[in-house]
Write a structure and sequence with these properties.
By secondary structure, the chain is mainly alpha-helical. It has 3 helices and 2 strands. It has a two-stranded antiparallel sheet with strand order 1-2.
């Protein structure tokens, strides 16, 4: 966990708060069609996945996705 002095936030706080903010944005823009309690990991799939990752990258949370085929 690293403290970012210029942003007055820890990396743990960013990785907790920013995905929640993305969900709030989906709700505000009426782009969340699911009802009830939905796990965050179920919201950012298919066409929502890459924009979610791109926004986190833009906000300073770098996520690298690696696919590996195991036989």
């Amino acid at each position: 966990n690293v403290y970012e002095h210029e942003n007055n936030i820890t990396t743990m706080a960013k990785t907790t708060a920013l995905p929640a903010a993305q969900v709030a944005k989906l709700i505000a823009l009426k782009k969340k069609t699911e009802t009830g309690v939905v796990p965050v990991e179920s919201l950012f799939i298919r066409e929502r996945f890459q924009p979610f990752i791109d926004e986190l990258n833009h906000l300073g949370v770098e996520i690298e996705c690696i696919e590996e085929v195991v036989m």
